[in-house]
Amino acid sequence: MPSLAAGAKTKELTLNTAASTEKKVIVATGTAKTSRKVQLSWTKTKGADGYRIYGNQCGKKSTPKYLKTVKKGTKTTITKIGKRKLKSKGSYKFYVRPYQNVNKQKKNIGKSNTAHVLMRAGSRYANASSVSVKKKSITLKKGRTAVIKAKVKVPSGKKQPKNHGAKIRYMTSKSSVVSVNSKGKIKAKKAGKAAIYVISENGKYKKVSVTVK
């Protein structure tokens, strides 16, 4: 299969799965290694033959473009978007799409969160350095609710970037067992176990284990 050039448009093919199948949460984390280099890493997806990386400058009118394909490993270094090098005062967003090779075609089997990365060295703003949660495990009875209390830590004297979406996002590994809203409120739906991922703008995260009885 011919390789795609960075910035090229790709035909998105998604592998059909049963409606009851729970999708694995894929978390992408972006780190500004230097003023012009980003290291993007992500959680491994079982059964994936590779990962497609997308990214662009931040902005509502800026649609992420295909950048590269990674066939081995779960991290890569990004120094440019298309033919343009990353800017030291820029802000960028990235996401990852794992795929499987099916009948000589790459079919998507998921999509990560969008990780926003601030490059501004010396700015009063900074990317999150970590995420903390008050409770790492929660047990609920069916129908009951709870709120996950979480905090994002940034380097001393810095603030999180503005206008880059929610400061914290939440994702559930099994929506049939427990649901979660944008404010971290979870609801137990049926007996079982699941994980809630608490994710910062740049993809730093913590997992909260939830057991429903």
TrEMBL record:
It holds the Pfam family Big_2. It comes from the Bacteria. Residues 130-207 form the BIG2 domain. SUPFAM superfamilies: Invasin/intimin cell-adhesion fragments (SSF49373). This is Bacterial group 2 Ig-like protein. It comes from Anaerostipes caccae (strain DSM 14662 / CCUG 47493 / JCM 13470 / NCIMB 13811 / L1-92).
